[in-house]
């Protein structure tokens, strides 16, 4: 061995400054508010979304979270365009990261939810949406981006431990199914240990 692997020297491939990910494209939204306690960021929730459902590489997720979804662009959008929801970050199919809400503010992704008996997960969670669908495999680029993001989030907000990274289905069982059977939790957890 001539040298140690790069990750030992540069363990965090992403950078967070003032609760913003420098590696993400920043998009503003009004779909956010203040956390009750910004010091209590202690859960990471993984979701999926695709707009229209099961179609990828469209601009509509961005429009939706920014409150600018055109109801005339697709019949489904007439149903959802007035919903006021968001997530902290979206990871597109090609691995591109978009951030909508600074991590110390509250994004509106979890809805009615509970983790280990504590309700209103949005108060203390960071929400990350993978562009995808429950039964369609995620891309390698998405796993790579999610691992890097999770790593820097766990470093920056150390109350987010491995046991406190969950799927939306875990905190809203019976109501939500994402990120779905397509999400390979074993691959993700192994990746976190190896990075
Ligand atoms: Zn979700």
UniProtKB/TrEMBL annotation:
Sorted keywords for this record are: Cell wall biogenesis/degradation, Cytoplasm, Hydrolase, Metal-binding, Zinc
E.C. numbers: 3.5.1.28
By sequence similarity, the record places it as follows: Belongs to the N-acetylmuramoyl-L-alanine amidase 2 family.
Domain (N-acetylmuramoyl-L-alanine amidase): give its ranges: 29-180
Chief localization: cytoplasm
**Source organism of the structure:** Paraglaciecola agarilytica NO2
Q: What is this protein called?
A: 1,6-anhydro-N-acetylmuramyl-L-alanine amidase AmpD
At the top level, the lineage of the source is Bacteria
Keyword Cytoplasm tagged: yes
Q: Which SMART domains match?
A: Ami_2 (SM00644)
The answer on whether this UniProt entry bears the keyword Metal-binding reads yes
Per the UniProt record, one Pfam family is Amidase_2
Cofactor(s) this protein requires: Zn(2+)
Reaction(s) catalysed by this chain, per the record, are: Hydrolyzes the link between N-acetylmuramoyl residues and L-amino acid residues in certain cell-wall glycopeptides
Where's it found, cell-wise?
Cytoplasm
Q: Which gene encodes it?
A: ampD
């Amino acid at each position: 061995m001539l040298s140690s692997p790069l990750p030992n020297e540069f363990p965090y491939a992403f950078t967070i400054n003032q609760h913003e990910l420098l590696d993400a494209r920043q998009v503003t939204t009004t779909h956010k508010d203040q956390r009750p306690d910004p010091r209590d960021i202690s859960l990471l929730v993984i979701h999926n979304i695709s707009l229209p459902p099961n179609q990828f590489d469209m601009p509509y997720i961005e429009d939706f979270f920014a409150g600018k979804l055109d109801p005339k662009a697709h019949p489904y959008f007439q149903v959802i365009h007035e919903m006021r929801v968001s997530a902290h970050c979206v990871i597109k199919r090609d691995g591109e990261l978009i951030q909508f809400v600074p991590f110390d503010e509250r994004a509106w992704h979890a809805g009615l939810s509970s983790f280990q008996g504590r309700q209103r997960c949005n108060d203390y969670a960071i929400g990350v949406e993978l562009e995808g669908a429950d039964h369609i495999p995620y891309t390698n680029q998405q796993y790579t981006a999610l691992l890097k993001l999770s790593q820097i989030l766990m470093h920056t907000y150390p109350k987010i431990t491995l046991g406190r990274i969950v799927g939306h289905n875990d905190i809203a069982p019976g109501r939500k199914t994402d990120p779905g059977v397509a999400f390979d939790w074993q691959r993700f957890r192994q990746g976190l240990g190896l990075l």
